[in-house]
Write a structure and sequence with these properties.
It is a single chain. The protein is an alpha+beta fold. The chain has a single domain, classed as Jelly Rolls (Sandwich), CATH 2.60.120.10. Helix content is 24%, strand content 35%. It is built from five helices and eleven strands. The strands form two sheets. Strands 1, 2, 3, 4, 6, 7, 8, 9 and 10 form a nine-stranded antiparallel beta sheet that branches. A two-stranded antiparallel ribbon has the order 5-11. The termini are close together.
Length: 186
């Protein structure tokens, strides 16, 4: 289930939860975050290669390329048996910003984006079919969970791809992990 929790940035236990897609979209649009739901033009198997996945979503990808001038698109996949899953998780858990906006579309699985805007933290649980676009220079972090299981399309306006500027803040340690967040929603 896609969900959004809006917290005061100093109260990680006092969040307001939204589960209606339209309400989530409205809350995120208010802070400049694009949030959409996509569907594929065709069916494909779980082991489909990058070209097959990109072809399935080509209409939506082409629209975003024209709208934002994306130069590169790829597919990233992480599973519980990935040997570097802990290192990847730690890297993304640290609060950071990007000079470019960060766009992710979840083909499979889920992940938890935390957006730190002004005096609020927006926890966005993205699942299959969700697209999120985090504006440039928005402080945020991402949790894929202890046993990640996701496949995402990533879009970039620069050839460098994912480049983070870490803030040095430890705020992420005071908010629920993906696994804790999902358990609280149950």
């Amino acid at each position: 289930m896609t969900a959004l929790t809006v917290y005061p940035d100093n109260q990680s236990k006092l969040g307001e939860i939204f589960t209606d897609f339209t309400a989530i979209q409205a809350q995120l649009n208010a802070i400049g975050v694009q949030f959409e739901r996509w569907t594929a033009n065709c069916e494909f198997t779980a082991d489909a290669d990058q070209d097959t996945v990109l072809a399935a979503y080509s209409d939506s990808i082409d629209r975003l390329k024209q709208q934002y001038g994306f130069q590169s698109v790829d597919v990233i996949s992480l599973s519980p048996d990935h040997p570097d899953k802990a290192a990847f998780r730690q890297k993304f858990l640290s609060e950071h910003i990007h000079d470019d906006f960060e766009v992710r579309f979840f083909i499979e699985g889920r992940g938890l984006f935390y957006l730190h805007v002004a005096d609020k933290v927006y926890a966005v649980l993205c699942e299959q079919g969700d697209l999120i676009s985090v504006p440039a220079n928005t402080t945020h972090w991402f949790d894929m969970g202890e046993n990640p299981q996701f496949k995402c399309i990533r879009l970039f306006t620069t050839p460098d791809g994912w480049v983070a500027n870490f803030t040095g803040s430890d705020i992420s340690a005071s908010f629920p992990t993906l696994d804790q967040y999902v358990a609280r929603l149950s």
